[in-house]
Amino acid sequence: MIAGSLLTAWLVGLLGGVHCVGMCGGIVATLTAGLPREQRQRFSRQLPFQLAYNLGRILSYTIAGALMGALGAVAFEFLPLHLAQRALYLIAAGFMLALGFYLGGWWQGLTRVERLGARLWRRIEPLGRRFLPVRHWRQALAVGLVWGWLPCGLVYSVLIWSAGSGGPLRGALLMLAFGLGTLPNLLGLGLLAGAAARLGEQRWLRQLAGGLVIGFGLYALWQVLVL
Which of 39, 68, 169, 213 could make a disulfide contact with 45, Cβ separation 3.0–4.6 Å? Predict the structure, then answer.
């Protein structure tokens, strides 16, 4: 099941890119605009910075996934194995359904989870300012590490899923797969900001992504209830 979960997490990250464009578009544009002019204008010089931003972001996701996986493992330790497994799969299916409706714009309940994360973000965000303006890839990596804790319903939904993954390693791998799924969209957003932003604003694309994620959730739910 872990291989299927990792593939699903990667696809959720990839399909959720339409949400990432709206959520992180301003951040990416600001970070890109803050680079020296000679680095912004040449693809080969801009690419290391964009990769470092995203590497830091994905590393933070992976750390958070390990923490949530460990918490979930402790919480389910007191249940019989078969009940714990069923509970884990139900959590995964439920949050995939919620995420699909969130991505499609049909239900915004996950924004309440984002508000809870905003308290933590207010404490972490000032740390990122210490590395601005970015002039070296190490600074970009540090900014990316901070960026990874930005309150986001998409990230939080997969984080809660990772709590039901069965342990810290699986939780970390799940968030790593999700982060790698978001990479093409956010890397492209940094390199081709205008075109990516216009694509992410297309309502039909968001609804298509949401519908596909709902399909994953229904399939996972069917596996739990029928198989």
Answer: 39
What average pLDDT does the segment 126-141 reach?
81
Number of other CB atoms surrounding residue 68 within 10 Å: 24
Cα separations (Å) of 1 from 55, 57, 89, 130, 146? 27, 26, 10, 42, 32
Gap between the Cα atoms of 121 and 217, Å rounded: 29
Residues 28, 144 contacting (CB under 8 angstroms) = no
Preceding peptide of 36 cis, ω within 30°: no
Residues 126, 132, 135, CA angle at the centre, nearest 5°?
Answer: 155
What are 8-37's pLDDT values in tens digits? Answer: 888 888 877 666 665 666 666 677 767 777
Q: What is the band of 227 on the pLDDT scale with cuts at 50, 70, 90?
A: low
Model pLDDT, residue 3: 74
DSSP per residue over 21-60, as a string? HHHHHHHHHHHHHTS-HHHHS-HHHHHHHHHHHHHHHHHH
Evaluated on CA atoms 12, 23, 165, 223, the torsion sign reads: negative
CB atoms within 10 A of CB 147: 22
First to last CA, the chain: 13
Nearest Cα to 27, choosing from 55, 50, 43, 9? 50
The encoded tokens of residue 44 equal: 């080969």
Q: How far apart are CA 78 and CA 87, in angstroms?
A: 12
